[in-house]
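Q: Could you fold this chain for me?
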Amino acid sequence: MVRKLIALALSAAAVGCAAQQPWSFNLGDFLAAKELPYDSPPQVIYRIDDHRFVTLEHYRDCNHGETFYNDTKRNIRKMLGIGYFENFQGKIINADPSGNNIALPVAFPPRLVCGDRGCTVVLFYSTDGGENFHSIVYMPNSFDPYQDSKAYTIIATNDSIYINQKLGETTNQTETDRYPMIPGFVYFSKEKLPAGKRIEFDVQAPTGLRTPSGQDHITCDTLIRPTNPDVPLNQDN
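A: Sure. Below is the predicted structure, expressed as structure tokens.
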């Protein structure tokens, strides 16, 4: 479901991107690749705690790679996609003390052309500690997801995910939506929310919460590069 949703959002977006990239790199080929051939070493770009973290791997640079959610205690390793999570520029707070609810928002690489209707952008969420991830749309029609993601703060608590959006560059006003996290319930499915549960709009965002590691933004060492940045890409890699 998640990969189909993102693929639909990008199908039109990738058209014409080649002209905006260096001759040796085609963004459309990159987004369509099943895996990447770059020999760059893995980087931890977002850490929840000592055993839960996201790595960027096989990357051409900090915006073009594969990302994986890792939990070394539970032996979990889940691919988040190619060119997605590493491009989120906003704030991420995973503050569920149980570790069950996890939120990992994505964006798309710089210079992506989103077409006349814009791109649909999601966040990945889990209610079972990362065993399974599903998706919620947090940015429905962005024409520049990379830049627009800077306005968002995504917060996971013991019972909810909050999507907080700053409403302008010259204002401190924000708007927050709350999605209840229910074990076993999947948004975008035909199933209805259980009785007494509902999505709430324009609520008060929680304050004073932090990720156990203290990290609230994605970080990446831009000086680390592969030795083969211009290796050809195709969908059959």
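A (continued): Residues 2-180 form one domain.
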